């Protein structure tokens, strides 16, 4: 079963896209330098904190910097982020958040300053900085910094995906066998049916990896390294930047029902169009 990739055609001002890409790329480069310079310092979560949902000083510093730069460059555009959305200094009002996410606001930014916090703290080389500009139709611009591979992945609606400036287009893949599928734990641990999903994949001779960064999991599909990524639970800022990459690379982005979507909330599948149907079947079977 071949699933056609999502192809949003909503026009955006070219000048705005170019400026958003430039600013987002600059912020991603800044973040990559900070992450590689500070990772693995040996900090540990307090007894009341979950290692799956942990706030670090680096995360707060990077998000504060991101918000200040975006506030100067794009005044009036709301910013949503993992670390400060409940902080009175930075968070928008509940009414403003609902307005922005319901489509009444033209644009919004969404940032995850350190995606893969537990890996970052342990010094494991698998975490990312993710930033996206969105409108009511989904990501307009997305940037993901992969610090340990010295890569900045960037995409804009209708302009394709690039890795350090080099265009990336997903090659045709006709079978899942011998491929890798990425998934992630939820904040509470495993997701319902996760064991059955892994069993379904392994029976099809497909490896499953839980690497600890939703943004990089999706990016691996966009780059052609992984066959698919299945995420059961996440926040917008976890995935928005990477979904821009996936759409522009030519991947299919599906919701839990198998419907194409540029920003599905409540479960998503990213895969090459020719293999998306197989992975979707494993996922849906696991949920029964």
Automatic annotation (TrEMBL):
GO molecular-function terms, A-Z: inositol monophosphate 1-phosphatase activity; metal ion binding
InterPro entries: Inositol_monophosphatase-like, Inositol_monophosphatase_CS
Gene3D superfamilies: 3.40.190.80, Fructose-1,6-Bisphosphatase, subunit A, domain 1
CDD domains: IMPase_like
Catalytic activity: a myo-inositol phosphate + H2O = myo-inositol + phosphate
Keywords of the record: Hydrolase, Magnesium, Metal-binding
Binding of Mg(2+), residues: 82, 112, 115, 238
Cofactor: Mg(2+)
One Pfam family from the record: Inositol_P
EC assignment: 3.1.3.25
GO biological process, one term: signal transduction
Protein name listed in UniProt: inositol-phosphate phosphatase
Organism: Saccharopolyspora gloriosae
